[in-house]
Amino acid sequence: MRKKKYESWPGFQIGTSYLLVIFIVLCLVTFAALSLSSALKDQSYTQKVAAHQTAYASASAAASARLADIDTALQSDAPYEALRSLSDITITDQDGKWLISYTVPMTDSQNLEVSILADPSDGSRHIVCWKEAAASQWTQQTTLPVLGSGTTED
Questions:
Q1: Which SS3 state, helix, strand or coil, does residue 118 take?
Q2: What is the pTM of this model?
């Protein structure tokens, strides 16, 4: 007896290979879309960080220039009057030393705050604070009902 040529079908048919190719192409397209989305998010974040660093650098340069003006005023013959002639600084007396504070705007929502402790007797100074701070205070505008918050409506 003679066996037929096509009596047993192979387990891997031509249609199965096409389905595998289609699945692989779909996976590659999905990974490409996810990669593009991630790259765009990274680019957006990098641009925000670069803008913040640029704003900080320019505010820091302006604060350093103001600090140079304060150093010049402290070295003058009448340091208190020279400091008073500078605009946008506050001087507070603390146990014979002066706390000199000023603010340099960075962005719409942030400022660079600088505080210096100066000794008028020898004209020296020490930077006490050099920090970023919010330009305005946060105020709560709405409330959210939370379980157990004490506000019940009957």
A1: strand
A2: 0.69
